[in-house]
Each structure stands twice: as structure tokens, then as C-alpha cells.
Amino acid sequence: MSSVYRLSGLLADPAGEAGYRDDHPERVGFFTDTSVCIGCKACEVACKEWNLVPEQGLDLLGQSYDNTGALGADSWRHVAFIEQRVPDPSVTSSGTDLGMPGIGAPEQPAAAEEGSGMRWLMSSDVCKHCTHAACLDVCPTGSLFRTEFGTVVVQEDICNGCGYCIPACPYGVIGQREGDGRAWKCTLCYDRLGDGLEPACAKACPTDSIQFGDLDELRERADRRLAELHQDGVGEARLYGRDPDDGVGGDGAFFLLLDEPEVYGLPPDPVVTTRDLPAMWKHAAAAAASVAATVVLSFLGRRR
Amino acid sequence: MSVPRKEAMSEPARTPDGPIEADGIRSYYGRPILKEPVWKVPDVPSYLFLGGLAGASASMASVAELTGHRELVRVGRLAAAGGALASVGALIHDLGRPARFLNMLRVFKPTSPLSVGSWILAPFSGLTSASAGAQLTGVLPAAGRLAGGAAGLLGPAMCTYTAVLLSDTAVPSWHEAYPELPFLFGGSALNSAAGAALVGARPCATRPAIRMGLLGSGLELAASSRMERRLGVVGEPYQRGRAGALLTAARALTVAGAVLSVIGRRSRAASAIAGVAYLAAGACTRFGVFRAGVNSARDPRYVVAPQRDRLRGRGGG
User: What are phi and psi of A130, to 5 degrees?
Assistant: First the structure.
């Protein structure tokens, strides 16, 4: 193993880099295939139940069937619902129009041109367990750590609620729990992994949209699924977070999406902030030298 | 009430219709992609300001010690200790679990600017308190000089590490500003320390502080104008709303402090007003920069637009 603490780029074995011996378990993760998600939210429920995540109040957000809103301290799985109009000839207005009385102006021809079909994108979002995890890098207490499975977990008995991990996450995953003060996020069911069980969300998923396993195998499976969908004419299918060459060195939890990432509330090209940390310290050192020189300069010359 | 779906769909104003588009940027119902910082106001902006004030004051005091400017030694040591202790207090108060503040010193992590900062701030506040204690009581003056000298060496780091602290996040307007932010904070810290000296010392003793304030103001203004010119779209939060107003006020106060520190240099009152203007400028700078970052995290546009540009540049989308 390289002794250099690598901040970005390709990294095959994050657990090994974190100091685990070579006999540590394989890196595990999630492959979330959103093309078969049915939006049942069993993952959200199973996660809350298993991990004893408190409720954060009931709220109707007016965002399709999504009343969770986003990932956070009290939502470690979040199912996104996106309603889109698509030019789908199989769902024509004559096919669905039951002639029921309605409100508003009659349908305009323009709408028919845009497409009178409709599709519903559903996607269960989760912590990405990045290869280069900014939350872990910036944590000053060592509360956030890399597990032997290559995942990223907060130790709640260490966290002092400094909040640094929260704006550091390029995905907006980790949050501070109200009334508790500490930071919380998905642990990829660290306790279950230790007992050889799969995480609660994957266990509960009825369509295998959430697949748990060794990351290498999941990546192969995802590549096959993508090829299959492309062959079937679903050209918009794409993998997100699969590439070990991306700005965070690849995600431990990656996705098959059917539209651009930002449509699902995901950043299109996330980069771990600590990639630039050496450059930041260089600029800060130059600025510190300027401050020192300025102070000395101010006292040069005539006294009084 | 039964409304046929297709009619609801044909009326975009009423339909929460999938991706929200604004300026060609798509998003999930316009929701933020990032979590905005949970750092409290005024705790964290005050911590940034007080840390800068303390750092530059400690350096000023130690150079004043070497060159025999005794009045500036006194003011510098007191401002450094006061600023450092208040800065530590603000940092602890901001924690979600203040009782666990010592966990900051549980490990030393070079990848965490807050860990590095804690290891700068902890000895710095101890050393500045010791030198200020020696100054006030007259006890152990040699130890006080030694402590003050060591604090003076840490001072420039105190002025600038907080810029790295903000930049080492995914917050677009903070991260992208990393080349200029330490110079902005360093310059601002210099004129804050000059401000404290102008308030606390007699006009006959402040000549080096006046020079320090002028040079610091120049550094601060140059860094801020370069930053806003270079940043493009993620520079907008620095110019808009309350953040923009705070940073405009900071620049005006800096210029006012600089001008008044020169033309009023023989008057105790005018010098003190110049000093207060400098100190207010330093506070406005930190509160403005802080708020601009929060605003940039709140708006998915500032996250998506630069990343899309980057992808287009690579030919990836």
C-alpha cells in the first residue's frame, strides 16, 4: 500500500489505504437500478426501523409522491419522484381520455406536440460512501471513519457536532440532527454487515432496485444491465457514480438513472473538495507570509 | 373532484412537473443539491473575525516588542488574548455538543483544516493569554515576552487558516474562491489589528499600526476585487442581497478607516473612529463572505452550472 495519503484520483482499495490489513473484507456497496424502482418506499421504512432513525414530522411537500424531500440526519434513504411528459405514442390522449368532466381550458394542440404521454421516474437515493469521502477527510475529531468494508460511518460517541462534514459533502447527504446536535447519515448497516447480513433497505426492496454486494461484482452487473437497456432502446439510461475515475474516485453506492443527475437532485460532476486542499494550503501559506512581511515592513524605518 | 390527468398536465403552472428549469438549469423541484452549512450566525463569522484580529495583533505585538514600541506591545497582546479567547468561545458555542469540544484535539488530521486550525488555535490562545497576563500583572515579564514571541509566529497562520476552512467544502462560492480568500482574510486581519491599535494606543505611538492598516487594506481590496472578477457565476453571491451589502459596507469602511487613520493621525478621537471603522470592516467582511457561501449552497444553479460547464469542457455532456 502506498504510504501517501491520496486525496483524489484512482484508488482501488480505500479500506487498505485507511490502514486495514490485506485480509480485510471486500469493498461492498449498493447498485440502485432506478429503472425498476416502483416508489414503494419500503427502503425508507426499513432503514428507519432497523437504524432507529427518528421521524422528522409529517409534511406534504407537493412534489409528486415525495414527502421526504431530501437525504439528511433523519432520512438515510430518500425516494425521489419525478413526473415527466414524454412523446409516447402508446399513451395517447384518446387512449386515456374517459371524457370525464374537468376544470380549465380544453387541451391545446401544443401540448399534444410536446407529448401527451407521461413517465414517472423513481429513484431511491442514499449516501454514496465515496472512495474519496470529503466528510471523512474534513472531520476534525476522527468521528467519521472508513470501515473494513470500505464504507464511511459516523461514530456517534465521538462526534461533537462541529458540522464541518455537512457543507463538505458534494451530494448534500449528511445532516445535523435537531435537538441532538450531532451529524448522522447512512452507515450501510455496518452492524448488519458484521453479521453477514445485507443492509435493511436492500433486504426490503421488493424489485431488487437496490442491490447490495461486493462493489466489483455490482459494477459488472450494472454494466450488463446498462447494455441490456441500451439494446432495448432505452438510450437515456446511464450509470452514475460507477466510474472509479470520477471526481470522488467512484461511489460505493452508485445508480442507473434514466435522465440527467440534476433531475434527481444529484450533482452532475461532483468533486471531492479535498482534491484542492494542497493548493489551498499553498495559497494560505503565501498569504500568511504576506501578513508576516507586512507586519515587519510596517515597523521598518523611523521610530515614532 | 375528478380532474382528468391530461388536463392537469397541460397546465404547467399548476403541475409540479418533474424537473424544474431555470436559466436552462434542471433541478429536482428547485431544491438545493448541497446541505447549507449549519454553522450558526453570529458564532462562526465572529470566530473568523476574532481569530484574524487576534492573529495579526499577536504578530504586531511581537514585532513591536523587538523594535521597542511598548504601547503597541500592550495593545497587541491584549487584543490578541481577547480575540483568541472570544474566538475559542464562539467556536465551542457553535458545536452541536459543546461539552465534547476537547474531541477537537483527539487526533491531528492534516486533511481537516478544522483539525489543523484547532491545533493552531489551542496553543495560540494559551500563549496570548500568558503574554497578556504578564502584561497586565507585571509578573514573569520574560516568560510573557517568550509567549508573546511564539504567539507572534503563529499569528499569520491564525489570520489565514480560516480561509482554508471555508474553501475546503463543496460550497461553490467558498471553494472556488480558495486562491484569493486567504489574502482577503489576511489583509482584513491586518487592518483589524491596526484598528485595535488605533483605538487602544495614543496617536503618538500608532505610526507603524497606521502603515499596517494601509498595507492590509490594500491587500484586502486587491484580493476581493480579483476574486469577484475571476469567479464568474459563483461570484454572484458575493455581489447580491445582504452578502453583497455587507461586503460593500466592508470596502467602504476599510477605505474610510484608511483615509481617516492618515488625515486624523494627530487626533485621539479621529484615530479611534478610524480604528472602529477598520474593526467594523473586518466583521462585515467575515459576515458577508459567510452569507455569500450559504446562499451559493442554497441555490442548485451555483452547483449545477459550473459542473455542467466542466463536463462540456471535457466533452462529456
Answer: -55, 150
Cα A13 to Cα A1: distance, rounded to the nearest angstrom: 9
Q: How far apart are CA B132 and CA A234, in angstroms?
A: 71
Partner A contacted by B212 (CB < 8 A)? yes
ipTM of the modeled complex? 0.93
What H or E segment, with its residue span, contains residue A77?
A: strand A77-86
The CATH number of A14-84+113-271, from 2.40.37.10, 3.40.50.2300, 2.60.40.2470, 3.30.70.20, is: 3.30.70.20
The answer to whether A242 and A219 are in contact (CB under 8 A) is yes
**Which of A64, A182, A283 lies nearest to residue B97, judging by beta carbons?**
A182
Longest dimension (CA), chain A: 94
Strand order in the sheet with A28-33: A210-214, A28-33, A253-257, A238-240
CB within 8 Å: B19 and A163: no
A 185-244 residues inside an 8 A Cβ radius of B: none
Is-contact A298 B69, C-beta < 8 A?
Answer: no
Beta-bridge mates of residue A192: none
CATH code of residue B99: 1.20.1630.10
Chain A residues whose CB is inside 8 A of the B110 CB are: 5
Whether residue B5 lies inside any domain: the answer is no
Q: What percent of chain B has pLDDT over 90?
A: 90
**Cell of residue A72, nine digits:** 439528511
- Fill in the amino acid letter for A266: L
Query: What pLDDT, on a 0 to 100 scale, did the predictor assign at position A90?
Result: 55
Query: How many Cβ atoms from other residues are within 10 Å of residue B42's Cβ?
Result: 15
Regions in chain B scoring below 50 on pLDDT: 1-18, 317
Instruction: Give, in order, the Cα–Cα distances in Å from B266 to each of A218, B72, B212, B262.
Output: 75, 16, 17, 9
Nearest to B281 by CA among B316, B308, B317, B255: B255
Give the count of alpha carbons within 13 A of B134, CB side only. 17
Helix (H, G, I), strand (E, B) or coil at A41: coil
Shortest CA distance from B180: residue in chain A: A283
| d(CA A262, nearest CA chain B) in Å | 5
Q: Which of A298, A300, A304 to mutate to test the interface with B (most CBs of B within 10 A)?
A: A298
B16 touches chain A (CB under 8 A): yes
What is the model's pLDDT at position B314?
84
**What whole-number distance in Å separates Cα of residue B298 and Cα of residue B303?**
9
Question: Residues 6..65 of A with a Cβ closer than 8 Å to B: which?
Answer: 7, 61-64
Q: How far apart are alpha carbons A187 and A118 in whole angstroms?
A: 36
The answer as to whether B7 is a domain residue is no
Look at residue B243 and tell me if it is in a domain: yes
The pLDDT of residue B19 is: 56
- Residues in chain A, pLDDT under 70: 1-5, 88-116, 302-304
Contact A161 B25 (CB under 8 A): no
**3 state DSSP class of B157:** helix
Question: Which of 243-282 (A) contact B at CB < 8 A?
Answer: 259-260, 262-270, 273-274, 276-277, 279-281
**What is d(CA B32, CA B200) in angstroms, rounded to the nearest whole number?**
46
Contact B112 A137 (CB under 8 A): yes
